[in-house]
Amino acid sequence: MADQEPNGPVMLPVQRQDWILAEIERAGGARITQLAEQLGVSEMTVRRDIDALARQGLIKKVYGGATAPARSTSDEPGFEVKSHRELAAKDQIGAVAATLIQPSTTVAVSAGTTTYASAVHLARIPGLTVVTNSVRVADYLHAHGDPSQTVLLTGGVRTPSDALVGPTAVQTISGLHVDALLLGVHGMDPAAGFTTPNLMEAEMNRAMVAATSRLIVLADHTKWGVVGLCAMARLADASVLVSDEGLSAEARDVLSTAVGELILGGPGEGIGLPGQTAVTRRTADSPATC
Predict the structure, then answer these.
(1) Contact 195/232 with Cβ under 8 angstroms?
(2) Burial label, 95 (beta-carbon count in 10 A; 0-12, 13-18, 19+)
(3) How many domains does the chain have?
(4) HSE (CB half, 13 Å, CA atoms) of 251?
């Protein structure tokens, strides 16, 4: 049964758990009594939600509450775990990204849950040729894409994020030239740039970056300040960075001078109609390599 926030709408368990996870990640931890009061639900309900999140490895249970688990640069959550995070922001980002892609062009799409969210919107664009190392993206476009689209799925070894990587995948993309690349990232940082915890995925993504002159990075606000094991590109390499309105003022200031264009997707009047604000200043950024 769904619970209800004070003076707010009914929340389903998955929505409530997303809210709890976001609050714990923001603050580093939270007490059960605090969460119950903020959500307007019973402490027992919050305990069940915390148990569910802890079983997925998303939080660490402690006496009276929960904390965010310690992360290393090589931690790599699987696709299913990441697919439950920041759903609204990812859909807004995906909708904005699709407006940057013209019909009858060639676009590469990297693996990840944010780029997968963009597939819903890319599916409506006629004449696209899509090159991807994401099994999920390829499957979605095959089932729901415009009949005039062509989808090329690279071969390779599958990673926890459902990316196809390795020599076969790199060889496939290295021989191509695409009009734009939609790149998902694990983290973005002023010094480290755009990073991933997976060495082979980094190699594949660097090959995708080299295959285009227009790099469009898709990253929600939770990726700011996160550093993965291996860098894929500098901030300055991004022609466009699409994020969401949860991005902090500090991050906006840094990114607006580092990337070619910063676009923040906001709530729209239905899927595919996001609000947007754009900042277009640019300066160079320092590289980081693996």
Answers:
(1) yes
(2) buried
(3) 2
(4) 23
| Residue 193 and residue 154 in contact, taking contact as beta carbons nearer than 8 Å | no
The pair phi, psi for residue 190, each rounded to 5°, is -55, -40
Q: Is residue 290 part of a domain?
A: no
pLDDT tens per residue across span 171-180: 999 989 999 9
Query: 52 with 95, same domain?
Result: no
Which domain-ending residue is among 27, 43, 67?
A: 67
Q: Which domain holds residue 257?
A: 80-279
Which of 92, 60, 57, 88 lies closest to 75 in space, CA to CA?
Answer: 57
Give first-to-last CA distance, the chain, whole Å.
48
pLDDT digits 0-9 by tens, 26-74: 777 889 999 999 999 999 999 999 998 888 878 888 888 888 775 544 4
pTM for the full predicted model: 0.69
230 burial type by CB count under 10 A (0-12 exposed, 13-18 middle, 19+ buried) = buried
What DSSP element (H or E) covers 106?
strand 106-109
Phi/psi at 118 (5° precision): -70, -25
Whether 24 and 145 map to the same domain: the answer is no
From CA 107, how far away is CA 262, in angstroms rounded? Answer: 20
Distances (CA, A) of 83 to 71, 103, 134, 244: 18, 28, 14, 17
33: domain CATH number is 1.10.10.10
**What is the rounded distance in angstroms from the CA atom of residue 264 to the CA atom of residue 277?**
5
